[in-house]
Design brief:
mainly alpha, 9 helices, globular
């Protein structure tokens, strides 16, 4: 069976995006540690909270909701975007809020301005590694096996249903434009930036007891996910990524001004 081959450009894209998805958060972690004396503990706390809130609790919610609605939500892009955005905002921001509140009064492991950044890097880093990094590694491994002709042996050992599903996945991998694999890594830059920005909003909300800042974090997260889901269905891939970049810039600028505003107030009070 001729399954086709994956282009060299696509394979390079997988490798580049994989390196970005895995390497960027690691680089940022060490940069904040050595440049600003951040505690690496918070990188892993942020990563763990992402796993618990987004990869476990949110997925359990999806399984329940999708099971009850029997495909109704997934079949309507607007309803699905509303649900997906709401679920992501509620689970991720609530997890962030709980963690930051808990560690604000810590002693050895204490949340502060720098560690808030470290937490955001860990949250966005876990998302980057688990969703994009692992996918890039799997795709690159599959592409190498496919191009070398060794994938046929794997297919022969599968049952008919699994074999057909695997062939469909390979077909998508072969036919996907090379730009898609490069854009996956570039998107992670924007996503990590937004996760850091959301953390700043929640951190400032807890630190200064400003509930409105937490509301902004929830609302911004919902809007970003809602627009991303809808745009992915209606717009070309590059246009969608440009839109994500614009949203990342907007959220980042907002977080910066919030940070400056309350830092300035603290300096004046002292």
């Amino acid at each position: 069976m001729d399954l086709g081959t994956v282009s060299t450009a696509s394979m390079i894209g997988m490798g580049v995006s994989g390196l970005l998805a895995i390497g960027l958060p690691v680089f940022l972690m060490f940069y904040v540690k050595f440049r600003y004396k951040g505690q690496i503990n918070f990188f892993f706390i942020g990563a763990a909270m992402f796993v618990v809130s987004a990869m476990m609790l949110e997925q359990l919610c999806h399984a329940f909701v999708f099971g009850v609605t029997k495909g109704t939500i997934q079949n309507n892009i607007w309803v699905y975007a509303l649900y997906a955005g709401l679920a992501a905002a509620v689970f991720e921001e609530t997890g962030r809020l709980i963690a930051i509140r808990y560690f604000m009064n810590g002693k050895k492991v204490k949340m502060n301005d720098v560690n808030a950044f470290m937490y955001g890097i860990g949250h966005g880093g876990a998302e980057s590694v688990l969703i994009v990094g692992s996918t890039c590694v799997n795709n690159l491994t599959t592409a190498i096996m496919l191009n070398s002709g060794s994938f046929s042996d794997i297919l022969s050992s599968l049952d008919d249903t699994t074999k057909q599903q695997t062939i469909e996945g390979i077909k998508q991998l072969v036919e996907a434009p090379s730009t898609a694999f490069y854009l996956a890594g570039i998107e992670r830059i924007f996503a990590i930036a937004m996760q850091i920005a959301f953390t700043v909003f929640i951190y400032q909300a807890v630190k200064h007891q400003k509930k409105e800042l937490a509301v902004i974090a929830y609302a911004a997260h919902f809007v970003v996910d809602f627009i991303t889901v809808v745009a992915s269905d209606f717009l070309p891939m590059i246009s969608t990524e440009c839109l994500i970049a614009a949203m990342a810039a907007a959220v980042g600028v907002g977080a910066y001004f919030v940070w400056q505003k309350y830092d300035a107030r603290v300096r004046e009070d002292n």
